[in-house]
User: Fold these one by one.
Assistant:
Number 1:
Amino acid sequence: MIKLIGSKKIKTAVFISGTGSNLNSLIKFSKNKRSPISIDLVVSNSRKSKGLKYADQFKIKKKIFNFNNVRNAERKILIQLNKDKIKFICLAGFMKILSKDFIKNFKGKIINIHPSLLPKYKGLNTHQRAIKNKDKFAGCSVHYVTEKLDSGKIIIQKKVKITNSDNSNSLAKKVLRQEHKIYPQSIIKIFN
Ligand code: GRF
């Protein structure tokens, strides 16, 4: 694994596709003295990702890559990551599946946050599925990224109670609040 050398923080890229609330929480965390990472690059597959505003707000470099051709996009991303000396990647609501070849380049150095208690509900619509199945708990998991979707080793998981009045929106909000906590906690756990 990567170790902190002296007081230098590990250069990290965050990949997003949407709102970027996890990006925002990671940026705020990265400013803290206790954070082992600095966020030096934000990658998105879409110019429309609302979360890009956080890159602007915190003056972090942002790059958008068109995924119409996945191989091309990944090749360009790798060039960018090398250029910026990125050593660690956090996926935060990134809606593209990275190829085995891409992941190989950052083996054990890519993590993701997923809105379910993995291994339950890999993939999409996790909250709807939990409610439909009358589960008592939903939650979120931070895990290592491997070539198998949402299947790498879990770093931290947090349970959230599902109440009778919950719908997928209210549940998503509750879970998201926990996501913002366990993503930074997972990074501390990895590097300590
Ligand atoms: C989060 O629920 C995350 O777990 C999932 O996508 C959502 C992204 O939210 N992968 P945000 O863009 O970080 O606000």
Note: The chain has a mean pLDDT of 96.
Number 2:
Amino acid sequence: MDHRTIELRTAFKQSFGSDAQVAVRAPGRVNLIGEHTDYNDGFCLPMAIERDVLIAYRSRSDTTVRVLSLQQKNLEIFDVGPSEGNRIHKSSQVSARWADYIKGCAQVLREEGLKLHGVDMALTGDVPLGSGLSSSAALEVATMLALLGANGLTFSAEKIAKLAQRAENTYVGTQCGILDQLSSACAVHGQAMLMDCRTLALTPAPLPKGISVVIADTGKRRGLVDSAYNERRAQCEAGARALGVSHLRDVSMAGLWQARQAGKLDAVALKRCEHVVAENGRTVAAFACLTSGNAEAFGQLMDQSHADLRDKFEVSCRELDDMVAISRALPGCLGSRMTGAGFGGCTVSLVKDEHTSAFASSLASAYKKLHDLPMAVYLTCAAAGAGPVVLG
Ligand code: ADP
Ligand code: MG
């Protein structure tokens, strides 16, 4: 039992007057390669990180949900019973918006036809909020496990991921693809996973021996991300329509060149499509590098991914480009790229084990000379997907 579990147990008892019955956890994730491909039915290569959302809970006999967030220092109460009508009301106060992720999960389960009992929940987490490491998906997946567990139900990890994504899309209102929730729900300890976002098939592969994954947060928050993300999605959808396919997944580089010759795409659409088509190819190639243990080639694909995200998909920013350039020049770094939606958030780098601690400190000091932002470096192994935790 770590200190967070003890803190959570204590907070639960203080707030709700009895002991929690069960605890569950769901991790954040980092995507090693395959960016802006999930909503194009393409490929991603994520792994879960050793940071998670932890929820202790106790089921109730009525339909009240009480949820305490240790980070937000805030208790929210709502009802999941039929008297609440068709829709659980969203939080009106900004300070309670975090609870919409929980209400959204309950709403989606009600829409599945479940008659839910209430539950008391206390939650804590160490996935940085809004950094692109998917604290929102970790919160949703952990909430799904808690709500289902409190109601004596079990769903498959894939179904939980889909329902969690639906909660974020339809209730919270963020049009994310399936990458975040599927990673959190289905990750395998010690492995990265090739994710086929069309079939939702996951194929695990271990990281190369002697190589560490280093995540660095630029400290820049992704202010533009919602509108720019939706714009990129719309551009990809328009590109697919112009090319006569349902998703850019179905386009080859050769097909893209033919479409260009035929004048089917304007210059911006062409750049966006080029990134997606090339990134799908790079992701499948990167997976092959994992299975053959070729870390150098994997790193080169990460570099190419960053260049396209910067120049063709245009979702990088000064801070991310600086972080990647600094990382790339440091000893032992095999590849580096922005990870997540872009416009801020984190980079991910592959670094030889013997260089990792020097890499982390040199990166921090060089970056701080350029940007006065609350940057952070996280070293992580590939964590297990969501599941129960022993409360002790
Ligand atoms: P990301 O998923 O990249 O971290 P998002 O903007 O999608 O960023 O989600 C962040 C939001 O998720 C936070 O602003 C908060 O509302 C909610 N959240 C995540 N983890 C927690 C937590 N431990 N406690 C309360 N709210 C959380
Ligand atoms: Mg999120």
Note: Residues 3-199+383-389 form a domain with the Ribosomal Protein S5; domain 2 fold (CATH 3.30.230.10).
